[in-house]
Design a protein that fits this description.
alpha+beta; Serine Threonine Protein Phosphatase 5, Tetratricopeptide repeat; eight-stranded antiparallel sheet; 15 helices; elongated
């Protein structure tokens, strides 16, 4: 699903501390545009698109190359590897501003609240998990934060913790600790450059857990999980992509029936609908779905390029190579480095 997870803690007006899977950073700005500085040296700019929950993001300074617990109600039980050059030790995370540190648990706060507060202050995922293990009142928030933090470094443990959250009756969005201390959000990427921002809530946890299950090859489990979640635009995109991965084309068609192109998410779903019709041998319906996906030129370039490339593949299969080359040309005119468009262009030119 290509999700991107970032925890963003509001520490003072206009300033957030970003706790991501790959490091620590800070961001500065207003609701209309923000500049984010990452501990790795990467810098990005984000601005609102006018679509609720959707932001546009681009890199200002790229990431540098690398230098070289059991049952519900209690504590949970405890693809091919890629060779990478050794990474240099990451820089020390920026300190939390004093304004955040002054907001401490009171004298009569519970031990769980104090332990979880120290975990956030220390930016320590193990402490967050331990706080949940040892203090029932901190379990929901502790397991949620630790599970999201562990998604890259310890996906097995992350699955265990996030599964506990989903099996419980609680919603992290209503947790007292989250409401008292954290203004948090999780960004789930719909496509490169486009993301849906959700609060720390059951939907965000469920979609993150589905991503982990997908990475572990448990696509059936991921589908079952998302099918049981409240229907939203985000869960629809997640479910459609899972169906595409499994080749469940009729499910994709049923899920996207009656959609209108209202935003980037629905445009992406219409593109999936076109792929599903093509794969089930209904190319004319596929072309119509791609036409609907491309109806609004204001949609993100990534979504439009996906629809254009898939329509080009469909037209080529129908013997309409001139139309296919025209679609590929549109993509390359906007992004000459698009690998999928380059490969398809070579096929059409052969």
């Amino acid at each position: 699903m290509g999700f991107r997870i970032r925890k963003s803690i509001r520490v003072m007006p206009g300033v957030r501390l970003n706790l991501s899977k790959t490091g620590i950073g800070a961001s500065f700005g207003s609701n209309y545009g923000r500049v984010s500085l990452h501990s790795s040296g990467r810098e990005t700019f984000a601005s609102r698109t006018g679509i609720p929950g959707i932001t546009y993001m681009r890199s200002i300074k790229p990431h540098p190359e690398p230098a070289g617990a059991g049952q519900q109600g209690g504590a949970p039980p405890g693809g091919p590897a890629r060779t990478q050059a050794p990474r240099a030790a990451p820089p020390a995370p920026p300190p939390l501003p004093e304004e955040f540190r002054r907001k401490k648990p009171g004298m009569f706060a519970s031990a769980g609240e104090k332990a979880l507060y120290e975990a956030v202050i220390s930016q320590n995922r193990t402490m967050a998990r331990t706080a949940g293990d040892e203090h029932p009142d901190a379990r929901l928030a502790g397991y949620t934060l630790a599970g999201l933090w562990m998604m890259e470094d310890d996906p097995g443990q992350a699955i265990t913790l996030l599964q506990w959250v989903m099996d419980s009756d609680g919603d992290p969005a209503t947790d007292a600790f989250v409401q008292q201390y954290l203004s948090t959000s999780v960004e789930l990427g719909l496509a490169e450059g486009v993301s849906v921002s959700l609060p720390i809530c059951r939907e965000a946890v469920g979609l993150s857990l589905a991503e982990l299950m997908q990475d572990a090859g448990r696509i059936d489990n991921a589908i079952h999980l998302v099918e049981g979640m409240e229907p939203t635009g985000s869960t629809a995109v997640s479910l459609a992509e899972l169906y595409v991965l499994e080749g469940e084309w009729q499910q994709v068609i049923a899920l996207t029936d009656g959609l209108a192109n209202g935003d980037d998410a629905t445009a992406l779903l219409l593109a999936y609908r076109g792929v599903a019709f093509r794969e089930t041998g209904v190319p004319d319906a596929a072309v119509e779905a791609f036409k609907m996906a491309l109806r609004a030129p204001s949609r993100s370039a990534q979504v439009r390029h996906l629809a254009l490339i898939e329509r080009a593949r469909t037209l080529a299969a129908m013997g309409r190579k001139a139309g296919a080359r025209k679609d590929v040309g549109k993509v390359l005119a906007e992004d000459s480095t698009n690998a999928a468009a380059q490969a398809l262009n070579e096929e059409l030119s052969a």
